[in-house]
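I have been asked to look over a protein record a colleague put together. The record follows directly below this note.
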Amino acid sequence: MKPLSWQVAAAVAVGLALALETLPQVLRWLWGGRRRPRREVLFFPSQVTCTEALLQQAPRAEPSASTTSSAGCLCSLPHGESALSRLLRALLAARVSLELCLFAFSSPQLGRAVQLLHQRGVRVRVVTDCDYMALNGSQIGLLRKAGIQVRHDQDLGYMHHKFAIVDKKVLITGSLNWTTQAIQNNRENVLIMEDEEYVRLFLEEFERIWEEFNPTKYTFFPQEKKSQ
């Protein structure tokens, strides 16, 4: 068998080099089409960290862990990752819609995040419990003042859900009330997941409650009996 000429050997070498150069792009394309759904579990109480870098008006790109470095921030709080910062980043990834179904909501950081999404043009809707929305420190009044739609129950039972749906794709749910007490002191859990079936079920529940709590259906005064 005749040995390969230097021209053929050179051609083979060039072809191999080109193949190796394009291999990373091909692999990214293949894996990109099979991206693993998001699964994340957060446990509280959360370490107290600075979240100012996350709560800025300007960035519209999805906030990353590096944004928690808070370059130039003069506060005395430690800078870095925490359960709260990860929850904030999951919320601030919203680009189209955010549905919130919360029993109690008094965390100023989470309240600022929701208002920030509203300012960016995200459609935000909130369902809450009537007995807790007027308590001292509640964020509900501030959300309403900012122009965010809020509806509440009008019955004896608690609206005790604690979940959020981001862009109708990501479900955030667990035991956590969105209060400073729960975030900093309680043993709580939050599950963040991309699952089409679970998101659909929670979205259906939200829409059912949203319609049930429509204020046009409220009865503020008993109806008088019609005269005979």
